[in-house]
């Protein structure tokens, strides 16, 4: 099964490629999008981000997707499943970011649920995590809506974070 593309009710997702560089730059320059993601990134940090995420695809066969509105085809955000080192343990995280006009429409929940489902169904994972700052209560709410529960408070990149987790038995029971 290829994970290069997929759809949800309102989103179409396409594998990150070098042609998406301008979109990643646009997203990283948007202060509102990046407010809870470490702030606006300069060109060097954006290129590093792009390179790391392209390499993740090459190594693992999944990673970051560019998200489009299915009706208009407009690029509206990104979603991901990728490896994350959690205090020396290899986990798979889900994450997402949308441009402000698309906030408050349930799209973060839609993509987070799809990513969790892909993690369990396509990748046969035992758990999926979500990582956010304590101040990002909206993201914590989304992650709880897809079945995640508080796992631990931790430091990530020198910044306090909250780690939430959903496990296969918990996910299966909710089906």
Profile the largest sheet.
5 strands, antiparallel
Instruction: Sum up the overall morphology in one term.
Output: globular
Q: Give the CATH architecture.
A: 3-Layer(aba) Sandwich
The count of helical stretches stands at 6
In the CATH hierarchy, what is the class?
A: Alpha Beta
Percent helix, as a range, is 25-40%
Low-confidence stretches: none
- Strand fraction equals 25-35%
Structural features, described:
The protein is built from six helices and eight strands. It is 34% helix and 34% strand. Strand 7 (149-156) and strand 8 form a beta hairpin. The chain is α+β, with helices and mostly antiparallel strands and 175 residues long. It has one domain (5-173): 3-Layer(aba) Sandwich (Aminopeptidase). A five-stranded antiparallel sheet has the order 1-2-3-4-5. The protein is globular, with a radius of gyration of 15 Å. Helix 1 (21-28) packs across helix 3 and helix 4 crosses helix 5.
């Amino acid at each position: 099964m290829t994970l290069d593309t997929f759809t949800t009710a309102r989103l179409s997702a396409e594998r990150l490629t070098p042609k998406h560089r301008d979109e990643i730059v646009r997203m990283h320059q948007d202060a509102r999008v990046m407010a809870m993601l470490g702030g606006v990134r300069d060109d060097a940090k954006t290129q590093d981000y792009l390179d790391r995420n392209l390499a993740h695809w090459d190594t693992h066969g999944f990673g970051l997707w560019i998200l489009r509105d299915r009706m208009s085809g407009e690029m509206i955000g990104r979603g991901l499943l990728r490896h994350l080192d959690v205090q020396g343990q290899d986990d798979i995280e889900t994450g997402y970011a949308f441009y402000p006009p698309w906030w408050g429409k349930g799209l973060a929940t839609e993509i987070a649920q799809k990513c969790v489902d892909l993690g369990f169904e396509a990748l046969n994972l035992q758990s999926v995590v979500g990582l956010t700052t304590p101040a990002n209560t909206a993201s914590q709410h989304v992650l709880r809506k897809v079945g995640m529960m508080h796992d631990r408070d931790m430091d990530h990149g020198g910044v306090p974070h909250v780690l939430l987790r959903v496990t296969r038995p918990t996910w299966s029971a909710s089906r």
